[in-house]
Specification:
The structure holds two protein chains of two kinds.
Chain A lengths: L11 E5 L3 H27 L4 H7 L2 H30 L2 E5 L2 E8 L3 E8 L3 E7 L3 H6 L1 E8 L3 E9 L1 H16 L8
Antiparallel strand pairs in A: 1-2, 2-3, 3-4, 5-6, 6-7
Helix pairs in contact in A: 1-2, 1-3
Chain B lengths: L7 H33 L3 H23 L3
Helix pairs in contact in B: 1-2
The chains are: A alpha+beta, B mainly alpha.
């Protein structure tokens, strides 16, 4: 769990996760894909020219086969919805008293963990763009480190709070506390 | 009007294979997803809830698929 990223003498200040709204946004096409075949079937059944054929489909083994294929579709849509949820939920940005740890799950087999020492952080920027990000309070956290490296943490919840906590942690590190090491 | 007739023998041999393939995919997916959640999640209660929802949901769908056999 989280302890695998934090050293023994290190103290976690805050954990920030991805906001739930982009997840809901990706759920919409999945729900549509589940609903469209049923809607199409009902729509075609209402068309007078096709209705007799559709009526035939609802009898015997054909309807069973169609239902079977539809259930398999629902099964795979369920798996993809859960994958998207896992992808969102297993991402995290951990701020400790020494470092910022950004964990990004990308699909099933790719996981990226970036670690920045607080003393190397030169600039923290928040980007909230668009209606939803402004209303629901999430955005992209951009961390600029020494050596002109820039890290983007998209769709993070409460980015202003994250920026404030990072700022306080940097101030503490620079005010003479011993710097940590990787 | 042409009557649509589906060969029953083809259908009865297709369904078990389809369920078998779905079952194999489900087992592989479940192993990967469970390991991911156990290794990388940050809250054990949410891990338990999420995995329960996943297993109940997916098993319900597989259970329904089996009724076609």
């Amino acid at each position: 769990m989280m302890s695998q990223h934090i050293q023994k003498d290190e103290k976690s200040q805050a954990i920030f996760r991805k906001h739930w709204l982009p997840f809901v946004g990706t759920l919409i096409p999945i729900l549509l894909a589940a609903y469209v075949p049923k809607w199409l079937f009902d729509y075609l059944s209402d068309q007078p020219s096709i209705a007799p054929y559709m009526q035939q489909l609802t009898q015997g083994t054909i309807i069973e086969l169609l239902l079977f294929i539809y259930t398999i579709l629902i099964f795979f849509l369920f798996l993809s919805a859960f994958s998207v949820f896992s992808d969102m939920f297993l991402d995290a940005c951990i701020i400790t008293d020494r470092r910022i740890i950004d964990i990004e799950q990308m699909g099933f087999f790719n996981r990226e963990t970036s670690i920045f020492l607080l003393e190397h952080v030169q600039d923290v920027t928040i980007e909230t763009s668009g209606f939803f990000q402004t209303i629901f309070g999430y955005g992209t956290l951009i961390i600029q480190t020494a050596g002109d490296r820039q890290f983007h943490i998209p769709n993070i919840s409460r980015p202003h709070k994250a920026k404030r906590i990072i700022g306080e942690a940097i101030r503490e590190v620079r005010s003479g506390r011993p710097a940590g090491s990787l | 009007m042409t009557e649509i007739i589906l060969p029953t023998s083809t259908l009865s041999s297709f369904l078990p294979w389809a369920v078998f393939v779905v079952g194999v995919i489900w087992i592989i997916y479940s192993i990967i997803i469970t390991l991911h959640w156990i290794n990388y999640a940050y809250n054990s209660v949410l891990t338990a809830i999420s995995l329960s929802v996943y297993y109940i949901g997916s098993l319900a769908i597989i259970g329904y698929l089996i009724t076609f056999l």
